[in-house]
Design the sequence.
């Protein structure tokens, strides 16, 4: 296939061919260019020279080789959801897997094969057709690839582990354009690094996941309290989740009540604290487990009930749509001491935009029972992950104020910080935060794998782990 590449700076057209490429090539002169370069975060506005929309591993190989032959920077696009916008670069080539969304479930083996551009909605839908699931994210339009490669936190993680704890194998196109299979038995060093190390090691064209019996109906839903009760509710919640069974997954949201059809209109946009729960076990056990939380104070609204798991997985989708502007800060946290609760409850509701919010993910359970270093996901003993999420629509002027709001809250959380989840990092972070996401020994091992598989740092448009070139440079600092 041949395409015209227009260098948007010089406006000089040039004809480029990617040998053997069967997918679509989209350059700046193409009618779909602006749609194809847009990512979930509307604040990201980058103009790649070429978008190579692949339809299979052979296209990915061709695109990687083409990029290297032509000295083009590479960005890899899975679901395009990363808040830092790493799925799209200026001037270079986007290796776009969004047309590769196939999912095949083997119910007898309890496993699923998933292509590298699939979204969680694709996986949930196909696996739930068999009453099966694996840990995925809490918003179903998130990409499987980026989420998995960073670790993967979600409702099921305390029972079934992180997404990476359920990864059985991956097919990877390396920086040399070779197609490898990585698993415990093949390229096990690469397989280790893929389970947390992000998109640093190659383009994953497909994943194989272990599945578990889940639902298809689970006890799940949100409980809403008035924002003025947040401190007390959070203290109760802290004690409540400390001994909760692994089946219970919770995420707390501080912000306004989103205008969802299930929420009565008089509550829309009212400042509220929401505890979302999903119980990955028998409904009756979930009812018993959640009873004390549901009885605390008088919630404004309690929507917990038997719910199709696949529907619950997409319940939050419309609260964080594609195309709004987003700015995030995040950190892992230890157990919620009173001082920490005061900081969160004291700051969380002072954003300007009614769309901004704070989310607190309950970790532990199966996440913390995997030994540190067994996969490349760091900080497994952290109690919670918090994200401070500024969100505003294009044209609204909340951006500066709410960016400042997230930074102020992040600063106030400073004394409590304990690492960070790499997939929650924004695009203006100190590079040391990538190291913080892993801890020293995991990071050093990731550097070794990076040096072995991508010594030229071809895959650097990401939360980058730089190769160590000290040997080849005669012992200088790589
Ligand atoms: C609204 C929202 C909700 C979220 N909720 C959760 C959640 O519940 N749990 C959670 O764990 N995370 C969550 N995240 C974070 C999410 O894990 C990251 O944003 C992740 O990067 C999204 O994956 P993606 O494929 O859509 O990313 P993209 O933006 O497409 O890619 C991000 C990076 O991932 C790498 N990558 C993507 N595809 C491939 C591939 N096929 N091969 C190799 N590298 C690849 C590349 O380095 C790329 O730069 C959420 C994000 C958002 C915006």
Sequence:
């Amino acid at each position: 296939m041949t395409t015209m590449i227009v260098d948007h700076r010089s406006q000089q057209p040039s004809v480029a061919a990617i040998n053997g490429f069967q997918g679509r090539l989209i350059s700046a002169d193409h009618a779909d260019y602006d749609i194809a370069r847009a990512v979930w975060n509307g604040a990201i506005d980058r103009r790649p020279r070429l978008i190579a929309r692949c339809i299979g591993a052979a296209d990915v190989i061709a695109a990687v080789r083409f990029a290297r032959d032509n000295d083009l920077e590479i960005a890899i696009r899975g679901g395009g959801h990363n808040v830092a916008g790493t799925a799209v670069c200026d001037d270079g080539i986007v290796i776009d897997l969004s047309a590769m969304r196939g999912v095949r479930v083997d119910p007898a083996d309890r496993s699923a094969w998933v292509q590298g551009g699939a979204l969680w909605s694709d996986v949930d839908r196909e696996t739930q057709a068999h009453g099966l699931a694996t840990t995925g994210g809490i918003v179903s339009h998130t990409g499987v690839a980026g989420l998995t490669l960073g670790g993967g936190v979600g409702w099921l993680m305390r029972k079934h582990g992180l997404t990476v704890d359920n990864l059985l194998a991956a097919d990877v196109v390396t920086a040399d354009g070779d197609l490898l299979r990585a698993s415990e038995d093949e390229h096990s060093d690469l397989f280790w690094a893929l389970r947390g190390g992000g998109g640093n090691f190659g383009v994953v064209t497909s994943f194989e996941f272990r599945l578990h019996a889940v639902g298809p109906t689970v006890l799940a839903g949100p409980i809403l309290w008035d924002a003025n009760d947040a401190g007390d509710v959070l203290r109760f919640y802290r004690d409540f989740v400390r001994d909760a069974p692994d089946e219970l997954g919770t995420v707390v949201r501080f912000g306004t009540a989103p205008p969802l059809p299930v929420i009565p209109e008089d509550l829309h946009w009212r400042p509220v604290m929401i505890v979302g729960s999903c119980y990955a076990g028998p409904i009756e056990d979930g009812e018993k487990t959640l009873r004390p939380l549901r009885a605390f104070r008088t919630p404004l609204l309690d929507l917990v009930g038997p719910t199709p798991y696949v529907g619950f997985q997409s319940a939050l989708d419309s609260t964080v749509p594609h195309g709004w502007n987003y700015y995030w800060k995040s950190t892992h946290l230890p157990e919620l001491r009173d001082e920490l609760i005061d900081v969160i409850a004291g700051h969380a509701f002072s954003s300007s935009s009614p769309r901004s919010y704070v989310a607190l993910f309950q970790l532990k359970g199966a996440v913390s029972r995997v030994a540190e270093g067994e996969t490349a996901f760091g900080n497994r003993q952290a109690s919670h992950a918090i994200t401070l999420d500024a969100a505003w629509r294009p044209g609204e002027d909340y951006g500066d104020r709410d960016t400042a709001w997230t930074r102020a809250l992040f600063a106030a959380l400073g004394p409590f910080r304990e690492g960070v989840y790499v997939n929650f990092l924004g695009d203006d972070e100190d590079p040391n935060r990538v190291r913080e996401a892993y801890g020293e020994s995991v990071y050093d091992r990731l550097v070794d794998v990076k040096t072995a598989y991508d010594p030229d740092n071809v895959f650097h448009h990401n939360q980058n782990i730089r190769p160590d070139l000290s040997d080849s440079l005669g012992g200088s600092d790589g």
Notes: The radius of gyration is 22 Å. Residues 420 and 437 are 5 Å apart (CA to CA). The mean pLDDT is 95.
